[in-house]
Design brief:
single chain, ten-stranded mixed β-sheet
Length: about 250
């Protein structure tokens, strides 16, 4: 057995999420099917760095597998991509030690969220960014984001469906930049709660539009009440951009 770390990109539009579920097809299920064909019927567990929801995309999801036969990393990439749907691509593979775990070895993650402020939504980008045709003030948003940097209880920015007992998380970066008619939100941290990034974006857009004051971000955080925050931004603008590891990259 050789353990491999795989970096994966996918268009989350046609899937119920990363994890195998009974209510539809998932990225993990497609990976399992490809590996089963490669090993002539053997089930190969796929361990991911974490789940992504239905409609969420990935530039750099990471999984690990224990492959039962000798195979070069480049051949593993080529074989899997030949069997996977074109909405899922293995970007790279590398042999790693058994100490590496795609989930438990994570030291941080980066998510990005894409928004277009164009007056008319492009039909070619409609599944990959939120259409928000307003004069959003990025300076107001970045000023508000100063309140969420560091270690905080993010109950206000977590779905009530979350099963996590502790809502304390550490955010090391929260910012938005404008690129033409596009706003790119970037969030980095050790880990994120269910819908946390999407609720932060939904709240930030209200601040950027002048519907809330900059100071309210801190007040919402301190309230520890989901009802205090803004709406949950749609899934299709969200991307798992990169997963960070120590001593494994």
């Amino acid at each position: 057995m050789q353990r491999y770390k795989l970096v994966i990109q996918y268009d989350g539009t046609p899937y119920v999420g990363f994890q195998v579920q009974e209510n539809g097809n998932s990225i993990q299920a497609e990976l399992n099917k490809a590996l089963k064909k490669m090993t002539k019927g053997q089930y190969i567990p796929v361990s991911g760095s974490g789940r992504t929801d239905s409609g969420v995309h990935a530039n750099g999801q990471v999984v690990h597998i224990d492959y039962p036969k000798a195979i070069e990393a480049v051949s593993l990439v080529r074989a899997m991509n030949s069997l996977l749907p074109t909405s899922i691509r293995i970007v790279s593979a590398e042999a790693v030690s058994e100490d590496f775990h795609a989930r438990y070895s994570v030291t941080g993650k980066r998510y990005i969220y894409k928004v277009t402020t164009a007056a008319i939504q492009s039909p070619f980008r409609r599944q990959y960014e939120l259409h928000h045709p307003f004069k959003t003030d990025v300076d107001r948003i970045n000023k508000a984001f100063e309140a969420v940097i560091g270690e905080h209880d993010f109950t206000s920015f977590c779905s009530t469906k979350s099963d996590k007992d502790s809502k304390v998380r550490v955010v090391t970066k929260a910012e938005v930049k404008r690129n033409g008619d596009e706003l790119i939100f970037t969030f980095e941290g050790k880990g994120f709660l269910y819908n946390m990034v999407r609720i932060l974006v939904g709240t930030a857009l209200q601040i950027g539009d002048g519907l809330r004051e900059v100071e309210e971000m801190k007040q919402i955080l301190e309230a520890m009440d989901r009802n205090a925050a803004g709406p949950t931004a749609p899934a299709h603008g969200l991307y798992l951009d990169e997963v960070f590891y120590k001593n494994f990259n």
